[in-house]
Amino acid sequence: MVFRLRVVLAIIILSLISAGCAPLVQPPAPSAQPTEAVAPAAPAPEGAPPASGGVLVRAMTSEPATIDPQGAPSSGLSLVLPYLFDTLVVRDTDNRLLPLLAETWEVAADGKAITVTLRSGVTFHDGGSLNADAVRLTFERFKAKGAKSPIYGGIQQIAGVEAVGDLTVRFTFKEPAANFWSTISMPYAAILSPASMAKAATDDKAPLVGTGPFTLGEWQAGQAITLLRNEAYAWGPEMVENRRAPYLEKTVFKVIPDAATQLAALQAGEVDVIFVNNPDHLSKLRQDPSIQLQEAVLNSLIYLGFNTKKAPFDDPQVRRALAHAVNKDEILELALGGVGVKAFAPLPPTLPGFDPSLAEHELTYDPARAQALLAEAGFARGGDGAWTKGRQPLKTVLLTSNRAPNDAIAALLQSQLKAIGVPAEIQQLDSKAVMEATAAGKFDLLLWRYDWNDPDALNIYLGSGRIGSTNRVAYSNPAVDKLLAQGARELDETKRAALYVEAQKLILADAPWQPLYVPLDVLAFNTRVQGAQVGYMGRLLLNDAQVTR
Fold first, then answer.
1. Backbone angles phi, psi at 501, to 5 degrees
2. b/e map of 506-535 (b: 16 or more CB within 10 Å)?
3. Residues 461, 544: contact at Cβ < 8 Å?
4. Does pLDDT of 457 surpass 50?
5. Across-strand partners of 99?
């Protein structure tokens, strides 16, 4: 089976490293083709034109607080954005950069200016036309208001945005920005209607408007968000066959927080698409002839994070000790059913900057070493097996979201920490509440996940400038910040990857995270869905989709 095979391949790679093979500095981009064990979505029947119409219902775990591409991140926000808004460029599953609202671009020899020519004939949902001023105003608003966005650091690298013609815009930089394209291909970099931005400036309830293939319909808070086909759409990306208005009349995002309830709704035909990362659910769906599965490559990592600003986890010795208590093999086998690949570095294997040699710096499972490090950190173990420092007992609260399979992973982490004498209480909240708690520093340990398309993920999630937002563990190391800043400016791909490898060595020594595993996620479709595609970063492309009922 595909998931078992990937685990075996990971083991083979590590065995080759130990045998003296040269390290892979920049792995190839992930394959665009689904593996044998994962069936792709069925194509439209041959010989007949696709029928216009149909409604697709997709389950979502949580809804966004507001639909603002430049606002604070959430799973619900990133799910909805690509349908309502377009970016200047997009990436396909081979990581190739493709035009969308941008038609062509030219990069200055020194890397400090990029001139973009926009596609003509593009209109916003409110009737306004796409032009260079709309792009300029979008990025000016982002620099002024987007501090909570995960791509804010990348946006801040832009020194200026100038409209040099009706459809020509020039971005300038004080230093070359190696992560510019990765930044603006994310859905958070969507281009906004100037009229909607003006309205939102005086009315925080006024919706922002884009140029996407769907428009915002009814939003029933806590229940569903309905998107309507944009009849004027005629500028779809190259990786879809239908580059005009979608065939679907509507797309409905139904709020269903519980993964088991989502599974039941899919099998009952109440929803058409769900995201699956629970091995038990995958096993059931593989046996269901009414369901088709398609793998999603998301450049993701699941990690155990430590609140580095809160005692005793502000002590690297304590963080290393608890990291050594973690048995990743047990997590992979018991909590995940072998679905995933054990991680040893802060970057997943699909991103430049990942290097197998970093396995030498991993804090491996070693309960004896964990207890020795606690003793070195000044803790003493009493007759009851509990660790104390002075009169303060060592105990912790493990915070995570209520999304599967976090409950099973958290239970195993709790057991593993207990085995070295550290009691851990599990606290599960919805994703929004977890993000609020971590932003305020109100946690001890964090079981969390990130998905990103560039090695600048290290800066976004561990850079000092992101403390209080995406750097949830409040980690700060000036030497790491310096390497990450150099990586963001370095245009030579080999040199850039090497900078991220050096940064990861320091991060692994400081242990703000214990990397756990790289997930393998799947989108499950009812067989009545035809023509849907899983694109880059697991985004579901609906331009060619149809639903027959």
1. -65, -45
2. ebbebbbbbbbbbbbbbbbbbebbbbbbbb
3. no
4. yes
5. 89
d(CA 177, CA 171): 11
CATH superfamily of 84-202: Dipeptide-binding Protein; Domain 1 (3.90.76.10)
Which amino acid, one-letter code, is at 143? K
Q: Are strands 158-165 and 168-173 parallel, antiparallel or unpaired?
A: antiparallel
pLDDT tens string 30-75: 333 333 333 333 444 444 445 568 999 999 998 998 999 999 888 7
- As a whole number of angstroms, the distance between CA 488 and CA 418 comes to 41
Residue with tokens 């004939």: 121
Closest CA to 127 of 211, 71, 43: 211
* Chain segment 200-220, per-residue pLDDT in tens: 999 988 999 999 999 999 999
Q: Which long-range contacts (CB under 8 A, 24 or more apart) does 371-376 make?
A: 371/321, 371/420, 371/421, 373/317, 373/318, 373/320, 373/321, 373/324, 374/317, 374/318, 374/321, 374/420, 376/317
pTM above 0.70, yes or no: yes
Q: Within 10 A of 33 (CB to CB), how many other CB atoms are there? A: 11
Q: Return the sign of the alpha-carbon dihedral for residues 344, 346, 349, 352.
A: negative
The pLDDT of residue 458 is 97
If we measure between CA atoms, which residue out of 166, 141, 134 comes closest to residue 155?
Answer: 141
CA separation for the pair 439, 469 (Å, rounded): 6
Closest to 56 measured CA to CA, from 235, 266, 257: 266
Instruction: List, for residues 292-304, the tens digit of each pLDDT value.
Output: 999 887 889 999 9
How do the domains of the chain map onto residue ranges?
84-202, 213-297+521-547, 300-518
Q: Average pLDDT over the chain, rounded to whole?
A: 89
Its CATH architecture, for the domain 213-297+521-547, is 3-Layer(aba) Sandwich (3.40)
Tokens 């119409």 correspond to what residue? Answer: 53
DSSP, res 39 = P
| Residue whose structure tokens are 């939102």 | 200
Any idea which residue has 């991103």 for tokens? 351
Query: Is 300-518 a domain of CATH 3.40.50.2000?
Result: no
Q: Are strands 396-401 and 392-393 parallel, antiparallel or unpaired?
A: unpaired
228 vs 248: CA distance, rounded Å: 8
Task: Specify whether the backbone of 131 is left (phi greater than 0), alpha (psi in -120 to 50) or beta.
Answer: beta
Cα separation, 427 vs 436, whole angstroms: 14
- The residues near 385 (Cβ < 8 Å, ≥ 6 apart) are 421
CB 106 within 8 A of CB 115: yes
Distance CA 198, CA 522 (A): 40
Mean pLDDT, to the nearest integer, of 102-119?
97
